[in-house]
Amino acid sequence: MAILERINDLVWGLPLLVLLLGTHIYFTVKLHFPQRNLLYALKLSLGKADNEGMNLSPFSALATTLAATLGTGNIIGVSTAVALGGPGAIFWCWITGILGMATAYGECYLSVLFRTRNADGTYVGGPMYVLKNGLHNGILGGFYALCTLVAAFGVGCTTQANSVTQAAQASFHMSPHLVGVILALLTGAVILGGVRSIASLCERTVPAISFVYMLGCLLLLVLYRKVLPDACMLIIKDAFSFGSVAGGVAGTCIQHALRYGIARGLFTNEAGIGTSAIAAASSGADSPRIQAYVSMTAVFWDTVVMCLVTGIVIVSNMLYDPASIAGVEETGLTAAAFSHLPYVGDAFLTVSLAAFAVTTLIGWSYFGEKATEYLMGKKGIPFYKLFYIAMIYLGAIIPMRLVWESTDLINAFMVLPNVLALYCLRRYIKP
């Protein structure tokens, strides 16, 4: 644990933070602020592609991306960001989301442009294919695919299963082994059915789960309305302060706020990592521009909306009831806030977390499947799925902090080849 923390402090130091923010800003300016076309992008996300067939519709690709990104990053990840980086980490997480929409646009544009069509008519793509077909570097493409495969077992499996375990233990006193078995069975039943089964479930469940969770957050903000302005001011002030203490949770220096805000923002929306482009490349949309706009909205919903609202709920509770967070672990700030939700309290958060975790497990299984296909061909997919299901159970019993630190390290390794491809092939990206 100590070794991982030291490595992450080095990896997530100023150079990588500058690289990520610089990339987001560069592509925002280069692409003439694609964020300004958000309403157009949201409209496109509900349309159909002319070349779907066996491929995903634009909305299915978006739903699969959201399934993979909406989850513990919005609930537990934001909690750890505030606990370790201070309330100001919420601001940097939000900034990462707004600017990251442009980076996500570029990633998805290139992935659709340089994707490959299989013999059955389905498309496969993602940063590994961009590196292979665009930069003509199969070795680097293989490295990215390997990182994606490892991340599928980390980001996709262990963080989700572990977060559900923690919440289920606290709310219902359930055994971690039982939680792991249930999650493995539920996920396995879907992913063994193939990509259409995954997309179909994501289309139906992701919007409903997100709506219910956001409704719970809005009810809490109504409850915290008297401290809401102060909470917002605290987030902004702490983002640029060099030390603060709020509600018993120590804020650290600005670099720590940046480190955890950007790291958690990256974890939840994956702009800069490039994994969302894997789903985008499977869309039947012929135009890279259209699918890039559609996929860009995933960052908006995930970080600009949901992470921000969750963060404001947490910080508002710190001011509303400081005693509720006394002695809680870094992952417990969200639970402390939701304990004030009338009648349902902890149970609401636990059920929401479990629902998000299952969809994330399913969405990330698809990313890992495509990485396996790149590395070993279709013959390796059945073995990957079985191992993925087994890792869900193991993730339920692994120490939580070890999981998060490992995830941060994996994310950092995926950023470098993806950002390299973005800069080298930037001339192909059209606004």
Oligomer: single chain
Name the helicity range.
over 70%
Give the low-confidence spans: 243-256
Question: Per the principal axes of the C-alpha atoms, what is the gross shape?
Answer: globular
Please give the count of helices. Answer: 18
What structural category arises from helix and sheet content? mainly alpha
Give the rounded overall mean pLDDT. Answer: 82
Beta strand count: 4
Q: Span between N and C termini?
A: 43 Å
Q: How do the strands of the widest beta sheet line up side by side?
A: 1-2
Largest sheet: 2 strands, antiparallel
What is the H-and-E element order? HHHHHHEEHHHHHEEHHHHHHH
Radius of gyration: 20 Å
| Beta-strand percentage range | under 5%
What does this protein look like?
The protein has 431 residues and is an all-alpha fold. Helix content is 74%, strand content 2%. It has 18 helices and four strands. The chain has helices at residues 2-11, 14-30, 38-44, 58-69, 72-85, 88-113, 127-134, 138-172, 176-191, 195-223, 228-239, 254-269, 276-281, 288-320, 333-338, 346-376, 381-395, 400-424; strands spanning 116-117, 123-124, 244-246, 249-251. The strands form two sheets. Strands 1-2 form a two-stranded antiparallel ribbon. A two-stranded antiparallel sheet has the order 3-4. A hairpin with a 5-residue loop joins strand 1 and strand 2 (123-124). Helix 8 (138-172) crosses helix 9 (176-191). The longest helix has 35 residues, at 138-172. It is globular. It starts with a helix and ends in a 7-residue tail after the last helix.
